[in-house]
Design goal:
Length: about 500
């Protein structure tokens, strides 16, 4: 770089900085027993006399309107004597500040938490689980600002777990608001399991009240999950990854370099328990590829006010369920019986749901905002299905179709890998429906028309045809409540059929 260019760059950078807002948040938990915490937001470089502040309506990864703005209490301006600035609440998640003369303001507010759940903040005397969408107000149109966050850890607690980048002992920074909102924070007397390395990167499980269990066995299996999942794609894109256990409960949310998971190690007693919990952790871990990086076009940049609708949660969620089964099987945590029983359960749920005749897989994704994550919260649950259930079933048929068309040379693994390198690494964007479908057909070297009818229509699935490619059979039995479906391995399978099944289960 020559001298003239260097000077020029400094000049441009300083002009740029002058015209940019800077935003600094501070979080403190002065009284955990009140289930609330305090936030201050200092904004500098304001160029007009009025600005608007908003609280997000939802949390990417949990596709439901959460109305986080309703938890904001006592929002006030911290003003100097000469300030004429005033605040006016426009609706439950919007505040207008007007009369700004000094180019900077600070607002303070409390967040009142109500219930222990993975998609909202929750504070009590033992810990503070802080969801950024439930905490940090943003300026509409200014989501590219790089905010800093200062965390004042209460003296009664020892640790902080977050994916945010640390810049000093108390301060963290996010590149922009998509990163800020992707970085939950857990404060408390947390327990860390020993860190392990996969692909030269540090991985660690850290959590609140994680319970009594065989921690060495659990940690080594978690490492096997990370190794198997990252081998599937062949690239580890983060510097460090943290599994953040938020306490007992249900559900997890995926992020770029961490996941927050409900976790209670006291439940880890039998092999079945390990299979269930590690399936769940494999699912959340695999999401850092599938949905955070391998993603539908519509899922980024995020619209924190209105939500982002896509037809492809069957890929992002459904195939992550299919891959959780595959990862635990290939990692040696699940056996054939557990692997097949997971898929048999999904087939049973799907085939006993009358909604399969009304709603396609693509529609279940698009209408999840109305119907709920399992398709059961809308006005007519009998006419809805869940992409968590039909997604992995169609994933199995798609994988079998690709393997059959290529003599087991290619598989759904190649589709996911190609999607990662072609769209995320090369183009840094998501794929459209037709780009994903074309990618599957490119890998298969054949049309997959019927598979995509299973996605976009309610056409009945031809199990016998696709399962036979891998030497699998579907047996039916009747119980008083429903028809039970059970996948079994055909003892008379040919070498080719066995080879295809072994390709899937990793033998
Ligand atoms: Zn998921």
């Amino acid at each position: 770089m020559n001298r003239f260019f260097l000077l020029f760059t400094i000049l441009i950078n300083s002009l740029y900085a002058f015209s940019q807002n800077s935003i600094h948040y501070s979080i403190s938990v002065p009284s955990p027993k009140t289930n609330s915490y305090e936030v201050s937001m200092a904004i500098k470089g304001i160029e007009s006399d009025t600005i608007t502040l908003k609280m997000p309506q939802w949390h990417p990864g949990y596709y439901q309107i959460m109305s986080y703005g309703k938890d904001v209490k006592n929002l006030n301006l911290v003003t100097g004597k000469k300030s004429t600035a005033q605040v006016e609440q426009a609706n439950f998640n919007t505040w207008n500040i007007f009369g700004i003369t000094s180019g900077e303001i600070t607002v303070k507010y409390q967040i009142q938490t109500h219930r222990e759940f993975v998609a909202n903040s929750y504070v009590d005397k033992n810990r503070a689980y802080i969801i950024p969408e439930n905490t940090f107000l943003y300026i509409p149109g200014k989501l590219n600002i790089s905010p800093t966050v200062e965390i004042d850890l209460p003296e009664i607690w020892s640790s902080i777990a977050t994916g945010l980048q640390k810049t000093s002992s108390k301060t963290y920074q996010a590149e922009d608001y998509d990163i800020l909102y992707d970085s939950p924070i857990l404060l408390g007397n947390l327990e860390s399991l020993p860190a392990f390395e996969v692909g030269g990167k540090k991985h660690q499980f850290i959590g609140y009240n994680i319970g009594e269990f065989d921690k060495e066995l659990f940690n080594s299996r978690l490492k096997d999950v990370v190794q198997t999942a990252s081998d599937l794609i062949g690239d580890i894109p983060y510097e460090e990854y943290t599994f953040i256990g938020i306490g007992a409960g249900r559900g997890g949310i995926e992020h770029l370099n961490n996941t927050t998971v409900s976790f209670d190690g006291n439940q880890l007693k039998t092999e079945k328990d390990y299979n269930r919990v590690l399936n769940f952790l494999a699912h959340e871990y695999y999401h850092h590829y599938n949905v955070k990086r391998i993603r539908p076009f519509e899922l980024g940049p995020f619209d924190y006010e209105n939500g982002n609708r896509t037809h492809m949660l069957w890929v992002s969620e459904g195939l992550s369920v299919y891959y959780e089964y595959i990862i635990t099987k290939r990692a040696g945590i699940a056996n054939d019986e557990m692997f097949l029983s997971n898929l048999s359960h999904d087939i049973t749920e799907l085939e006993n749901n009358p909604g399969k005749n009304y709603q396609s897989l693509a529609e279940s994704s698009f209408y999840t905002w109305r119907d709920g994550p399992m398709g059961t919260s809308g006005s007519d649950p009998e006419k809805a299905i869940s992409y968590y259930i039909k997604g992995p079933v169609v994933g199995l048929l798609l994988d079998l179709a690709i393997r059959n068309a290529t003599e087991n040379e290619k598989s759904l693994d190649d589709v996911m890998r190609l999607a990662y390198f072609r769209f995320y690494k090369d183009k840094n964007r998501g794929f459209t429906d037709s780009e994903f479908n074309s990618l599957c057909e490119e890998v298969a070297g054949a049309a997959l028309t019927e598979i995509f009818e299973y996605v976009y229509t309610t056409k009945a699935l031809n199990y016998d045809k696709y399962l036979s490619y891998g030497g699998l059979k579907l047996e039916k039995s009747e119980s008083s409540e429903k028809t039970i479906y059970q996948l079994t391995i055909d003892n008379n399978a040919s070498d080719r059929q066995k080879e295809i099944l072994n390709g899937i289960v990793g033998e």
